[in-house]
């Protein structure tokens, strides 16, 4: 539930006062962000504002926009009305107070971290993070004079031992890609805050429909919006959800680096966002059902899903994710190449995730390709590991597809 201010007509002095109304996330996802845009009555769906620049009445009008006193779009790189609508919606869903949309998930993570880090600072990060995030932290940050330590974020003692006097950020994923481990976000937030550091959480695999890191102490929450937030493979971008102060720092970095989201991608994401709550229920239920079937099949060596009782963080996951775990799972499958071929024409091999249709990915050669081979194997990412992004199809049809491929 969320408290959303709605005007009440009988406020003292004839003024409309804000009375909190409790809405479920499904309702918020359908409505959030658009309540503040102009000409609401003229268009039920917000238009796409494709103009790269805007005209102003006079110098004072322009100065108010440039200073932030009267926020307005004035140049495409600085944002568009579509981006502003999406930012309002995502700040509401993650309950952070502010948000910043960017041209990609990596642009959002880069802006979030560079907004609070400088040369000489130190970052602690989970060794299991997404491959390109790993490369950013392992290769690019040291070039900027930022030190990075890779740890097992599920081992709180190891995280605690990694802290230094110059540690400024701890970065993890709420559900790691691709093995679905579950770091203890509340405990990590306490550890970080006790030492004057911030906790950064990439929430892409979960979405705010099933987990909201800020409610558990996270300071910086990021997403690739092309995944569950949009729900289709037609929009591209990223978002940082954080306090207004932290978003302002990140926005400065993003504008200087030029990581702007397009008006069309922001608009497309808003269209998908409206069904987030409904979609995530279907994703979560289907993924749990597929995991329950695969774990008992003789040709499946291992299944990685937080809803399985043998998952190493099962009890923590049940506590943090009471509404389900989203649509992601991974499986180590005997003769994975044959399995993929057997699914051809039914379930596509596509190196992304979170579409409404089920897809397969091969972490060894795609998402985690930037990691050295010994590190991939050490983390449990093998050539036979497949990542399954379970869609919202009929569960009987899905199970039939997987069982037929395994038996082929």
From TrEMBL:
<dbReference type="GO" id="GO:0019343">
    <property type="term" value="P:cysteine biosynthetic process via cystathionine"/>
</dbReference>
<comment type="similarity">
    <text>Belongs to the trans-sulfuration enzymes family.</text>
</comment>
<dbReference type="Pfam" id="PF01053">
    <property type="entry name" value="Cys_Met_Meta_PP"/>
</dbReference>
<dbReference type="GO" id="GO:0004123">
    <property type="term" value="F:cystathionine gamma-lyase activity"/>
</dbReference>
<dbReference type="InterPro" id="IPR015421">
    <property type="entry name" value="PyrdxlP-dep_Trfase_major"/>
</dbReference>
<dbReference type="GO" id="GO:0019346">
    <property type="term" value="P:transsulfuration"/>
</dbReference>
<dbReference type="InterPro" id="IPR015422">
    <property type="entry name" value="PyrdxlP-dep_Trfase_small"/>
</dbReference>
<dbReference type="GO" id="GO:0005737">
    <property type="term" value="C:cytoplasm"/>
</dbReference>
<dbReference type="GO" id="GO:0030170">
    <property type="term" value="F:pyridoxal phosphate binding"/>
</dbReference>
<dbReference type="InterPro" id="IPR015424">
    <property type="entry name" value="PyrdxlP-dep_Trfase"/>
</dbReference>
<dbReference type="InterPro" id="IPR000277">
    <property type="entry name" value="Cys/Met-Metab_PyrdxlP-dep_enz"/>
</dbReference>
<protein>
    <submittedName>
        <fullName>Cystathionine gamma-synthase</fullName>
    </submittedName>
</protein>
<feature type="modified residue" description="N6-(pyridoxal phosphate)lysine">
    <location>
        <position position="227"/>
    </location>
</feature>
<keyword id="KW-0663">Pyridoxal phosphate</keyword>
